[in-house]
Predict the structure.
Amino acid sequence: MLSLLPGPSLAQTQQFYTHNVGDQVQVRGQTLQGKPHGGKRAFHVEVVRTLLADLGYADAISVVPFARGMKLVQDGPRRALFNVVRTPAREAQFKWVGPLLIDSDWFFESSSTDRPLRKLEEAKSLPVCVANGTAYEELLSRQGFTRFERGVS
């Protein structure tokens, strides 16, 4: 998804940010590009690049940590952060454009686990890894999860 501060339209926005792209993107010259078959973050970068080109704007996307991107968008006009999960808590804070993609998230466990999980309820008492500052902790908390291991990606 693409989030903007209230007020400016997409065409007025001049600074674009994304986050947690890992090895799904590459920099060619001054341009951030999604790698072919690079996954959803590569796809998001390419969609935004195409929109910028169609609108006649410079192809200038910066990668920043998620928390910094959220602060940049909240603190200044004409800024956009994309690849953001839309949540009830964030709904009124931003002007939302999109979605760029609708997908599903999955739980994974080791194949060597002695007692594989059969229901989502069984996972609620176990530690779950979430990316620091993202919406997943909020979403899982609302479903009864309480044990989170936070990581940077």
